[in-house]
Amino acid sequence: MSPCEKYRARRHFPWKMGVQIFKIIMITTQVVSGVVQRGEYYKPQKTILKDYRGVDEDDYSVAVYTQQGVYDSLFYIFDQYSQLGQLSVGPISYAEDGDEKLLPVTVCKESYKRGSIHPSDEAFDIDAQLEKGDLILLTSITQTLLLFRLIDLKITFQLKGINLQTVRSRELPDCYSFFVTITFDNQCHSGKVKIYLDIDSESSACRDWKISGTVQKNTHYLLIFDGFVILVCITSACLCSRSIVLAVKLLQRFSRYVEDNYNRKVCEDDQSEFLNGWYLLVILSDLLTIIGSILKMEIQAKSLTSYDVCSIFLGTATLLVWVGVIRYLGYFQKYNVLILTMKAAFPKVLRFCCCAGMIYLGYTFCGWIVLGPYHEKFEGLSLVAECLFSLVNGDDMFATFAQLKDKNTLVWLFSRVYLYSFISLFIYMVLSLFIALITDSYETIKKYQKDGFPLTDLQKFLREDKGFIEESIEIDVQHQYSVLCCCKRYLQYF
Amino acid sequence: MSPCEKYRARRHFPWKMGVQIFKIIMITTQVVSGVVQRGEYYKPQKTILKDYRGVDEDDYSVAVYTQQGVYDSLFYIFDQYSQLGQLSVGPISYAEDGDEKLLPVTVCKESYKRGSIHPSDEAFDIDAQLEKGDLILLTSITQTLLLFRLIDLKITFQLKGINLQTVRSRELPDCYSFFVTITFDNQCHSGKVKIYLDIDSESSACRDWKISGTVQKNTHYLLIFDGFVILVCITSACLCSRSIVLAVKLLQRFSRYVEDNYNRKVCEDDQSEFLNGWYLLVILSDLLTIIGSILKMEIQAKSLTSYDVCSIFLGTATLLVWVGVIRYLGYFQKYNVLILTMKAAFPKVLRFCCCAGMIYLGYTFCGWIVLGPYHEKFEGLSLVAECLFSLVNGDDMFATFAQLKDKNTLVWLFSRVYLYSFISLFIYMVLSLFIALITDSYETIKKYQKDGFPLTDLQKFLREDKGFIEESIEIDVQHQYSVLCCCKRYLQYF
Amino acid sequence: MSPCEKYRARRHFPWKMGVQIFKIIMITTQVVSGVVQRGEYYKPQKTILKDYRGVDEDDYSVAVYTQQGVYDSLFYIFDQYSQLGQLSVGPISYAEDGDEKLLPVTVCKESYKRGSIHPSDEAFDIDAQLEKGDLILLTSITQTLLLFRLIDLKITFQLKGINLQTVRSRELPDCYSFFVTITFDNQCHSGKVKIYLDIDSESSACRDWKISGTVQKNTHYLLIFDGFVILVCITSACLCSRSIVLAVKLLQRFSRYVEDNYNRKVCEDDQSEFLNGWYLLVILSDLLTIIGSILKMEIQAKSLTSYDVCSIFLGTATLLVWVGVIRYLGYFQKYNVLILTMKAAFPKVLRFCCCAGMIYLGYTFCGWIVLGPYHEKFEGLSLVAECLFSLVNGDDMFATFAQLKDKNTLVWLFSRVYLYSFISLFIYMVLSLFIALITDSYETIKKYQKDGFPLTDLQKFLREDKGFIEESIEIDVQHQYSVLCCCKRYLQYF
Amino acid sequence: MSPCEKYRARRHFPWKMGVQIFKIIMITTQVVSGVVQRGEYYKPQKTILKDYRGVDEDDYSVAVYTQQGVYDSLFYIFDQYSQLGQLSVGPISYAEDGDEKLLPVTVCKESYKRGSIHPSDEAFDIDAQLEKGDLILLTSITQTLLLFRLIDLKITFQLKGINLQTVRSRELPDCYSFFVTITFDNQCHSGKVKIYLDIDSESSACRDWKISGTVQKNTHYLLIFDGFVILVCITSACLCSRSIVLAVKLLQRFSRYVEDNYNRKVCEDDQSEFLNGWYLLVILSDLLTIIGSILKMEIQAKSLTSYDVCSIFLGTATLLVWVGVIRYLGYFQKYNVLILTMKAAFPKVLRFCCCAGMIYLGYTFCGWIVLGPYHEKFEGLSLVAECLFSLVNGDDMFATFAQLKDKNTLVWLFSRVYLYSFISLFIYMVLSLFIALITDSYETIKKYQKDGFPLTDLQKFLREDKGFIEESIEIDVQHQYSVLCCCKRYLQYF
């Protein structure tokens, strides 16, 4: 019975549905307003050191191939650091320790302790012990850097910044410490030195601040709204928990009855029919919203800075809340077909994914091992998985083929066989079988709708055996509802 | 009965079809000729300031990261502006006010009123009131621009241009005013100053002009053609309106008859059968064409410049007119299957889109909130929707995966779960279900064609009850057609 | 009856099949050897003027935005031309006329005859008559080029080259004349001058040549091979024509018989059953091969240079020959299902393409008109068609969406509605319906294979009526085969 | 009977399955550990000469268009070579011969012996004999290089390097010799000189080495692990071979029995039912693993360097091992449907691929011949095949269309017809037919599962004829199992 019919039949306002719809509106509002007011994140890592030569914006790494290139990069870094004040557009400066003394730049190299190599003679003499040392005098760098012995070189320094952006949205600015590490990586000794830039940031309240000329933003309303959202979610979670608890109790009583009277167990299928998956979904989404909202309030109160965790909680909650709407669409006969089809097809699809997954896993491992050194899309296990997944779903195949063009013949041949077989197998066999599965489920459900669904044991039992009902009535006169009605109502409610 | 059969049966020339076919030819001709003669649009915004350093052609924005970069950009702009005469290839110059005095360049900055920041000490003292002011002496800019206090800086000036291109197609050239705004945006105080270029253009008739050596183009023919198109469309709209009015009248009489004799209402399905959707389509397309043609004539007469609105009207009209052709294809038995299938499947598909839309919406919100700060494809709500839509339909997946690579582990994990689940769900479940829906509809229609379509109430009624017909004849002898024939003919006409 | 069975049954070697298989081998060999020996085409247009600044390799056009840019490009061209001898790597030099005098460089400008413009005053005075003139003194260019009046400027000159590449493959080198035209296009007066480079080449035999130290390549073998291919194709075409002629004769006799005895016409379906489509395919491919081979021989004999036409003929012939192989696969029962399915589905698919094509055409026109000025993929009618076709088949959708991002709101909205509706309609409705059509055809064919194909009139007739056979025997005793056998054999041969 | 049921029924531990699962874990561990410890491959070819101007990182080739460009490239190469010591970051130096003398750089040119060309006069006089010669004095290069006669110029030298990277993973470093060849290719005489860089590397043990300060890595554990993997694989292969041998013996006895008693042969289908494909798969994967592991041990012992071969063996083995897991999934009823469907559909799909392959081949040849000179994706036969394959599976179609835009009209038209027809045919007809095939197979299998599979002759025989069993019992009393049981068990085991 849908909430609508319920209302008509019993003049019983569908509280649960009302709460859910209200919740959707609330959560979406909360989330959208949060995103809109968030503005641009403070991403200093992208901007502070942007002008460092050769540091690519995308992955913060660059490669140099000559000794001169290494030294140039090195001096460029010191140069930029020394003139930070005149350089940067943002409010940033050097970090100081407690006594207002500037913290030093640390240049730390790691190299083989001793060594001489003579490639021409195919001779070398190396002390493989690692020597770590700080380079303090910058002028001595060129002398002390014997590149062939060098393993890596790390430049670390610390910067301080203030996020003035929030002043305008009438929030208190945070102070940031940036721990910058620049690594010259020569571990491979392959003639290429990679330079990485890595910035960790840490925010804290500023020690000494004064803002005038503005009213501190009234965040009360936001807090109240968030609190209200939490309240709604608690209500919703309680209502659903109550339904689940009732269902479990009913199940227990029912199974006791069956055991007493018929001496057999209630089978698992019947048991699971008492547990409504939708309720679990709603409770999960409520929990996520509550945790997310609390985190959000903490962030607004400046006692936490974990934006990501908060947004993951709230984001997932929103996703689940919207998915939950489908349940109410299922009350309409015609929408129900589709939902039932998806429900019926889901285990089959999962099962088939399992089979296909084995082949997929095999291809992933195989591609990683063989093609890894030749193609950047195959360099890591997760990369291979993504690449193959993308290929099946219509990614740029030709580019993948082309990048494997100039390699040696054996690998070329292997890559062709590998790619053709994988793509053909998955696009022509696997995808088609998915369609066959879904089509089959759809037709089954349509036939059921016409001829009636096959009765489960429980339903058969309820239809045939009136004893349970009568007994229920006898036993449960003190209860608000008779078990049977409850049982029936519960089952109808789906 | 198709127009063809009608002609054979009654020697009645199918005027309506003739008009429609004629209309298709006319509108397509009009539209194509319009596009062909339109030539290249006058897009000065792309070209005038093209040489401004750092202003990228695509999105007219660039980012600088150093103080020097900000000043350089600023002076470059003034430099280019001052030598506009020697620089530009096109007919463009400075704007003047009424007294032939050059309009000044305005440099307007907005900054915090007062402030000193000491990031090293985690201390700041800011007056958050905004101070707006025009900078007039260019030389003083470097002194007065304290970048850390700056919020934004706007340079605005005005240019004038003449679109000489139209002289060659023997139309009168328009004069354009360009309102140029260059914004240095430092709202985020994140160490990156974005520079936007924004040009609004306004066209007007030139005040003082003289063209010799050419005959003014004879636009009479074009006007006549446009007028003729309008006439045809009015005729077509009238014919269709008449059919609809007749149908509505018939419906009224029919429902009165049913109410009188059988004491029951005509159900909604039967009512809707009297309303032919194709007629509504034709009328809509006619209205769009008429409005579009009038706008086109106004544009040619230089009294309007809203090219976009005109082309949207005419474009949509063309689309509808061509879609209308399908109706006539439906008269052929074999084509009809396909059209009927699409018609039958349409509500199911819409209904299913509704369900899938909920999940889609959930994913959209979730992706926007969580991945927004990490991936440019997820920065706005409409962008996320487009990105997900593209992913389902076979866009570059790997690139999307790859751009989320270097982020922190939590977000990385979330993005993987998010993308894999979304793509699998939509490509393997949702798309397959679409195919199942369509296949099912197709088979239903094929069975109907073999065994006969199920009769609607109205058809049953018409078949069984002769009373309505006789009564109609008795009552409507003065009418041109008996209601029944009319009714039958009307229904056959579909 | 398949050739294989025929052979077993009658010890009749299947000449036709033998010829066909032999032909496939021959043509593929011919084509592959042709491509392999062709080497790299002589494409001087890509290379001679490659260093011209700003001339992009892809589409030979570049745009400049400043007056200085125009003059620089102009002088750069003259500069490069003057030092061609020291510059070019290839065997190229200036063209001479009959008297060994160098042909001049022509600089031809087209501009408005007279004009003064004052954009600031919104005033202009223009003589729209076009003035064409050659500029001879290069130094005077800057004086005479008033850019705002300029419409276009054409620089034309002629170069000569020798294609020495062929010496190595022991063919005679050709001499080439290159007619170079460089156009400065300012028709739009929009502040952007486009520069196009256009090179026409013409090959001819060199006038005066001497090659020593090598044997002239023995092209006899190639000619013999080509001649042999032609011979095989003629044989094949003759055999097939004979079959068709026999079939037509049989049809005539059969229809005469039916008319005489039963007084009715043979229906069109039955008539078409006498015409074997495969034979037509084979004859068409034979004709193409013959023409292509003759062209190839002419090219080798240096009397023709139309490589493209020749390769289109030979290429299409190869395609058809390979497609013809399917016919022989159809003799195997299990392969036949698939071929029959495709044959049965083909008309349905075509019919449906027709319907979908109407909507497609509507969208194409509409997109061209409305989005043309805003997106380069929508600039031409064929471009729009390709773009939409690509979108349906899984092209980069997001890029298409993204490029329409920064436009005005109305167009933005329209483009979203346009793209979403088009893609959804075609991917979810149209593609699914294709699948439904094919699945349906497949099942029909499978049922036929199990239960027997429905008999055509002709087959029924042959089965029932023995009169035709007897009469045939009586009449045609002098014929080699009785009509009936012939008829039966003919029909079995399919 | 699944291993699980077997265990329950007979308390017979399923050794074979245990071995297989153990093997999967072992091989995956081996492979993953191998990849993880492999680190980055030593790819000096990418890095040594990276700074050579114009040498593109992707395909190691560049083109120059002017004489000056050729000379510049040449001198740049000598320059970089001469200062290799100061340039390179990696441990690399010049090669020496046995007597510690540096090996020389060889510059070898090939050109026409004698020749003068006068393109202006369309005259040339060439001695087509090739002259090869070494250029030793670098200063004389400009004099001796008459570019128009030059065919190619090869610079070859040799470098030595040491792969120090492995010191850190406590393996012994290899010494490498790099044979560098730089080719200036002017074979086409088309005004473009292509420069290729080609590096062959050869690794060998260093002649004279000393490593101190580190313990030689204990590779015993790795060797033991590898050995253990080999052992497991041998066990697995033996178990499977035994099963196959038993099956073959059983088959022989069975066919002898049938021949003796019924005087007929066992048909091939029945024979093939005795051969379990899974066993063959397992044995194949075992063999690959064994070979791969042996190669891996050799590589670790520095006696081999063929990483590629080893990784192809191990990779393919991993793929097969994972695919083998599907067999055990097949023991579950619900998974079995899917596996059986794929098995049933496989021959149909292959057969259909055959048909489609003919058309595909035709299109491939045709595209190669006609579009080869105009589009880089059509330059080679395998490229065309990949391009078409990618297009069908959703590659960037528009880009392919667009690149064929500016060509001559005939080719443009042909390319449109070619691409539209190919894509439509394959995406709409062929892909849909795949889906029809798979859907059909799925439904067949589902019906079989409901109604029982059709019995093969063998099964019918076993069911009906008890004689074989009795006889078997009589004969094979000394055997452990009766043939029948064996036979039955064997067949159940599938």
Structure, described:
4 copies of one chain form a homotetramer. The first copy, chain A, is of the alpha+beta class. The first copy, chain A, folds into 3 domains: 7-35 and 215-322, no CATH class; 45-205, no CATH class; 338-451. The first copy, chain A, has 18 helices and 8 strands. The first copy, chain A, has helices at 3-10, 15-38, 44-47, 67-82, 84-87, 141-144, 165-168, 220-262, 268-274, 277-300, 307-329, 333-371, 381-392, 397-403, 409-451, 457-464, 467-475, 483-493; strands spanning 61-64, 92-94, 106-118, 123-135, 150-162, 174-185, 193-205, 208-212. In chain A, strands 1, 2, 3, 4, 5, 6 and 7 form a 7-stranded antiparallel beta sheet that branches. In chain A, a hairpin with a 7-residue loop joins strand 6 and strand 7. In chain A, helix 8 crosses helix 18 and helix 12 packs antiparallel against helix 15 (409-451). The longest helix of chain A has 43 residues, at 220-262. Chains in contact: A-B, A-D, B-C, C-D. Strand 8 (208-212) of chain B pairs parallel with strand 4 of chain C, so a sheet runs across the interface.
Features:
3 domains; 494 residues; homotetramer; 18 helices; disordered C terminus; 15% strand; seven-stranded antiparallel β-sheet
